[in-house]
Amino acid sequence: MPLPVPTVPEGVDPAWLPDEAFRPLGTRRVLVRGSGPLVETVHGEVAAACARFGGRVERDASPEPYDLLLELTGDDGGEAFTCERRAGLTTVTATGAPGLLYGLFHVVRRGPAAFAEDHGLQCHRPGLALRMLDHWDNVAVHPVMGQVERGYAGGSLFWDDGRARGDLARIRAYARLLAACGINAVSVNNVNVHAVEARLLTDRIDEVAALADAFRPYGVRTHLSVTFAAPMVLGGLPTADPLDASVRAWWAAAAERVYAAVPDFGGFVVKADSEGQPGPFGYGRSHADGANALAAALAPHGGTVCWRAFVYDHRQDWRDRTTDRARAAHDQFAPLDGEFADNVLLQVKHGPMDFQVREPVSPVLGALPRTRLAVEVQATQEYTGQQRHVCWLGPMWSEALRFGHEGPAGPVVGQRASALVAVANTGDDPFWTGHPLAQANLYTVGRLGWQPDAEPAELLDEWLALTFPAAPRRLADGLRAVLSGSWRTYEKYTAPLGVGFMVQPGHHYGPNVDGYEYSPWGTYHFADRDGVGVDRSAATGTGYAAQYPEPWARVYESLDTCPDELLLFFHHVPYGHVLRDGRTVIQHLYDTRFEGVAEAAEAAEVWASLAPLVDGARHRRVAERYEEQLRGAREWCDQVNSYFLRKSGVPDERGRRIY
Ligand code: GCU
C-alpha cells in the first residue's frame, strides 16, 4: 500500500516541498517497481503528485510507454541510485530502498529538466555516509538555555516542557523535508544531557521510539545524546569507569533494551569531559577508552558512537598566555589515532574554536588518518546572527569541506570524513527556522553532506527553485542577491580578520568587544593600544600553527603568507600592519564595518522591492528581521569601530563618524 504523504499541518510552511514542486513529476505516467516500506513511501509520493496534477502511477506492471520508471532492483540497503534518460523514458534504479527514495527527490529537484534531454547513465552516491542533524533540544525547559539550547526557531519539534509533544504529523513532514535534502539521521536531544533527558535512554525510550517511527518512512534514523555518567545516574553503579566490567555490562544491557524498542536505532552522541559534562578523564582513562566502551555496547546492533572532540579547558585563567583553547582538541585526540573502534565517529567542529563566522579549518580533521571522522557545523546561527540576520553559510561550510590537509593534491576534508553533522536550526516556528531565509542553511547542509564538493551557489539555486517554484526571474535574482553574499556581509560588520568572539557573553547575540576578554573561556583578542590578535605561531606564540601539516603550518606561521581573513587568528599585529590590498589593519577594520552595514541596508532594500512577488506572511517576517539586522549591524559597526579608535588613537582616513 502506498504510504500517504505527510502533509504539513495548517499554517506551517511547506519549505522546499510545496505541492507545486511536484508538478513536473505529477503530470507524467510513472511506473514504480520494487517492494518494501520505503518503496511504499516513494509510491505514495508519486501517487499524491499524480493525483494533484493529472498524471498516472502504476505499480510493478510491464513498462509500456511511461515517462518515468522508478525501480528497486535489490535489497542492499544502499543509498546510491542511477539515473538515465533514453527515448523519452527517465529511469531511476537503485539496489537499496533508500537509494530509490533519494532518486525520487533527485527527479523532483530537477523539475522539468528530468524529462527533457536524453542523457546516459549517471551514478549518484552520497559523499558522506552519515548526514545528521543534532538537535540541541531539552526535554524539560532548562533554566538558562530554555527548551532548545541555542535555538532561534521557537520551541522544540519533539519536546514541550518535560513531555513528548506527540505531534507526529509535523515530525513526519519534517522527516520528508530532511530526506529531500539528503539528511539520513537525527539526534533528538541536546548534547548537554541533563537529568530528565538522561532517561530517554532507559525508562523514556518509548518516546524516542515514537519519534523513530515518524522518521523511519523517510529513511531517517534516530540517535540519542547520552550522558557518560549514565551507569551511575540511571543504573545506580558506583562508577562510570569505561574499563570497569559492570559499567560495560550496563551499557550492553542498555543498548539491548534500546534496540528492542527501536530496531534501527542509529546510536549515541556523546559530549564528554567538555564544558562540565562527565567523561573518561574522571577515571584516568582516555577518550578512546570512553568511546570504545559505548561502541562495544552498540556494535552487535550496528549502532555508531558519535564522540565529540570539543574538549578544552573552559576554566582557564585569562592571565595564562600559554594555554590556547584552539590547540586543545588536537593535543587530546591526535595521539589517539588508531585506537578508536570501527563504529566510533570522532565528531570534530569544523574550526578549532566554536562556530565563529571565520575560523581556520580544524587541524584535527587532518591528524587522524586511521580514525573515522564526522565534521560538525552549526546550522543554528548561534554566532552568525541567530536567525535574525540573514547569513547563508553554504560558502563557509563548502570551504571547510574542500580544505586540503595535505596540500593541493591531497585528500580534502570532505573526502576524508565519513559524516557531516549539523547542529539543527529548526523548531516549532511556522517557518521551521524562525527566519524564513534560514531554511536555505538547512537545505544546503543536507545537500553538502550528499555532495561535499558541490558548488554552494548551485545548491542555493536548487533551494530557490524548489521553494519558489514559479518564481519570476526578478524574484530569483533578488533572493540570490540577498543570500549569496550574506555570510561575508555578516563577517564584515562583526569581529574582524578571524579574531572571533567579541560577542555578548552568555547568549552570544550582539557585540561586546571585551565581553570574553577576561573570562575563563579561552577566547581572547589581546587588543591593546598598539595592536590586536592572537599569536599562534610556533616561533613566538602558542604553537597552534604547527598542528597543521605542510604546507599549511608554514602558510599560517608567517605573516607574509597567512591569509588576511585569518590574520588576527594566527598573529598579533600592530594596527599599522599593511594587508595585501594595501590597507592597514585599522583602516580595513573601519572600512569593512561600514561596508557591512551598507551591504545589509542594500539587502534590506532588495527584499523590500520583492514585496509584490512574495506571499505576505513570509515577506513581513523577513522584512521585520531585516529591521533588526540593520539595527544590529549598526551596533556592531559602532561598537567595534569606537573600541578600536579609542584603543589605537588612529583616526579613520575617511573621517567618518566614529563615536
Ligand atoms: C557552544 C555553545 C554551547 C554548546 C557547545 C557545544 O559552546 O555555546 O551551547 O553546548 O558549543 O558544542 O557543546
Keywords:
659 residues, alpha/beta, binds alpha-D-glucopyranuronic acid, single chain, Chitobiase, domain 2, six-stranded mixed beta sheet
Query: What name does the CATH topology of the largest domain carry?
Result: TIM Barrel
Helix content: 25-40%
Number of structurally distinct domains: 3
- Multimeric state: single chain
Secondary-structure-derived class: alpha/beta
Beta-strand fraction estimate: 5-15%
Bound molecules: alpha-D-glucopyranuronic acid
CATH architecture of the largest domain: Alpha-Beta Barrel
Number of strands: 20
Strand order, sheet with most strands? 7-12-13-14-15-16-17-18
Low-confidence stretches: none
Biggest beta-sheet profile: 8 strands, parallel, barrel
Overall geometric form: globular
Domain Glycosyl hydrolase family 67 catalytic: 124-432
Protein name: Alpha-glucuronidase
Pfam families: Glyco_hydro_67C, Glyco_hydro_67M
InterPro entries: A-glucoronidase_C_sf, GH, Glyco_hydro_67_C, Glyco_hydro_67_cat
Describe the protein:
With 659 residues, the chain is α/β, with parallel strands linked by helices. It folds into three domains: 19-124, Chitobiase, domain 2; 130-318 and 346-467, TIM Barrel, CATH 3.20.20.80; 491-533 and 572-648, Alpha-glucuronidase, C-terminal domain (Alpha-d-glucuronidase, C-terminal Domain), CATH 3.90.1330. The protein is 35% helix and 13% strand. It is built from 20 helices and 20 strands. The protein has helices spanning 23-26, 37-53, 97-110, 168-181, 195-198, 205-215, 230-233, 245-261, 287-298, 328-333, 394-402, 413-416, 439-450, 456-467, 473-484, 486-493, 552-557, 567-570, 585-609, 616-648, and strands at 29-33, 56-59, 68-72, 81-86, 89-94, 119-124, 130-134, 137-142, 146-148, 159-160, 163-164, 185-187, 221-225, 267-270, 304-308, 344-349, 373-378, 419-423, 531-532, 573-574. An eight-stranded parallel β-barrel has the order 7-12-13-14-15-16-17-18. Strand 1 (29-33), helix 2 (37-53) and strand 2 form a beta-alpha-beta unit. Helix 14 (456-467) packs across helix 15 (473-484) and helix 15 packs antiparallel against helix 19. The mean pLDDT is 97. Alpha-D-glucopyranuronic acid (GCU) binds next to loops.
